[in-house]
């Protein structure tokens, strides 16, 4: 791995295909940092119609919140998503106002 780069290991993925052929994905991932540390978490990303990940710097644009809810519902039934969480997953306060 090149100095200062992070490698992303995809543990599992769910996706929705759009009319333009691209897929919006929710992935359970493990980040392997150049300093030897790892972090577990989740990310949204796009796959092109060819199946290749769309290379983006920064955030992924979500068309609407419905897409996020649908992907999270799909992921909720899969063990790889249910049993996967980052070290900071329990840092949320006990009550969150929604």
Can you summarize the main beta sheet? 3 strands, antiparallel
- Overall pLDDT, averaged? 89
The residue ranges in which pLDDT falls below 50 over 5 or more consecutive positions are none
Order of strands across the biggest sheet? 1-2-3
Strand composition percent: 25-35%
Number of strands: 3
Structural class: alpha+beta
CA(first)-CA(last) distance: 41 Å
Sequence of secondary-structure elements: EEEHH
Give the helix proportion (percent range).
10-25%
Number of helices: 2
Q: From the alpha carbons, calculate the radius of gyration and give it in angstroms.
A: 15 Å
| Number of spatially distinct domains | 1
Shape: globular
How would you sum up this structure, described in words?
By secondary structure, this protein is an alpha+beta fold. The protein has one domain (7-82). 16% of the residues lie in helices and 32% in strands. The chain has two helices and three strands. The chain has helices at residues 65-76, 79-82, and strands at 7-17, 23-32, 38-47. It has a three-stranded antiparallel beta sheet, covered by helices on one side. The longest helix is centred in the C-terminal third of the chain and has 12 residues, at 65-76. The relative contact order is 0.21.
């Amino acid at each position: 791995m090149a100095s200062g780069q992070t490698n992303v290991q995809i543990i599992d993925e769910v996706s929705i295909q759009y009319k333009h052929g691209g897929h919006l994905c929710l992935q359970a991932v493990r980040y392997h940092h150049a300093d030897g540390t790892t972090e577990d978490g989740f990310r949204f990303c796009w796959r092109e119609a060819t199946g290749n990940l769309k290379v983006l710097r920064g955030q992924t644009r979500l068309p609407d919140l419905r897409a996020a809810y649908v992907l999270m519902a799909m992921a909720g039934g899969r063990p790889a998503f249910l049993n996967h969480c980052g070290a900071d997953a329990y840092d949320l306060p006990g009550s969150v106002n929604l």
